[in-house]
Design goal:
Helix content is 6%, strand content 36%. With 324 residues, it is mostly beta strands. Strands 1-7-8-9-10-11-12-13 form an 8-stranded mixed beta sheet, covered by helices on one side. The chain has a 5-stranded antiparallel beta sheet with strand order 2-3-4-5-6.
């Protein structure tokens, strides 16, 4: 099976409303909503609320993703409650929400900094194996970010008790490098104290940087391919196996497997098999939406996120969606 991609475009020079509408259509087509739960302008900031009911019978079974859109970026926070009449979160500050400020983006995590003189696209990659799973790739010139919001039918593991904690799945993908290795991390991008990852870490803390701190869930590590490249072994993460022909000379060529159905969080099911991850050696530059060809015309993958080490004989880790 292959993913079903669709691209939504805010054409330069776009407005904050046009950017918000681009995200709106992508979320509707991913079956995350039928419309924004709330929508309003505050100052120059377009505020939009996406409500996802994971389990309506649970105390913390509903997540409100609080998006802000401006002509310079897309921003997001999460809350446990929202009043669509007063246009603010309710409950207890820091436990249920961080701030009630609606006319500034400083209390939100930055999804991606943007410029409205360059066309912005949001591409939705919906699994052909499980249509409840969609990932989103935002591109604006040379900048891009990939993120996921979980559908209610593709939700928390049973050990996340949503009567006690909120399960929000604002997961982003980020790359880092060192030595000859590359690391692709999946990250929780925002938490409140009531979040399943927030209670102990945020106890007593009222500093916004702690609520927007990226928390690594999984780290996938790709090795470099130098002689005696032992330094890679000190890196923590899940190592992506390869078979290199200059190490095992019995091989006629490097073996670069695509590992399908990768887990991206310990707290939810692994992704369907039309998503995959691989470690690859190449001298060429790779960017989002480049094609990784396993077998031309038979098995091809599109890059959604990446960690690119540009040093000689170094690794690239590519997170991909299968398109052929």
């Amino acid at each position: 099976m292959t993913v079903v991609p669709q691209t939504y475009t805010a054409t330069a020079t776009w407005t904050a409303v046009q950017l918000a509408d681009t995200f709106k259509t992508a979320f509707i087509d991913a079956d995350l909503m039928t419309d924004w739960f709330d929508s309003f302008l505050s100052g120059t900031v377009e505020n939009r609320i996406l409500r996802v009911i994971n389990n309506g019978s649970k105390t913390y079974g509903t997540v409100y993703y609080w998006f802000m859109f401006t002509t310079t970026g897309a921003f997001v926070a999460t809350t446990n409650t929202w009043n669509a009449t007063t246009h603010v979160p309710t409950g207890t500050q820091y436990i249920d929400y961080f701030s009630t400020t609606t006319n500034a983006t400083t209390n939100h995590a930055t999804l991606l900094a943007l410029t409205n003189t360059t066309t912005c696209t949001v591409t939705r990659y919906t699994s052909g194996v499980n249509s409840a799973v969609s990932l989103f790739l935002v591109r604006n010139g040379a900048s891009d970010t990939c993120f996921m919001l979980s559908h209610p039918s593709f939700n928390a593991s049973s050990f996340v008790d949503q009567d006690k904690v909120q399960f929000n799945t604002l997961i982003t993908f980020g790359g880092s490098t060192g030595g000859q290795y590359a690391i692709l991390s999946t990250r929780q991008a925002y938490s409140t104290r009531a979040s399943y990852l927030g209670a102990m870490r945020l106890r007593g803390n009222t500093t916004v940087s702690n609520y927007t701190q990226l928390l690594n869930l999984f780290q996938y590590v790709g090795f470099g391919n130098l002689n005696n490249n032992s330094g890679n072994w000190t890196t923590t993460g899940i190592y992506l196996p390869v078979a290199a022909s200059n190490t095992n000379t019995a091989l006629g060529a490097d073996h670069t497997p695509m590992y399908t159905a990768p887990p991206i969080s310990p707290y939810m099911s692994a992704l369907p098999s039309d998503f995959g991850i691989t470690s690859y050696y190449a001298s060429s530059t790779m960017v989002a939406q480049d094609t990784f060809v396993v077998s031309s015309g038979t098995e091809e993958w599109e890059i959604l996120a990446y960690a690119i080490n540009s040093a000689t004989s170094s690794a690239r880790v590519l997170f991909c969606a299968r398109t052929v």
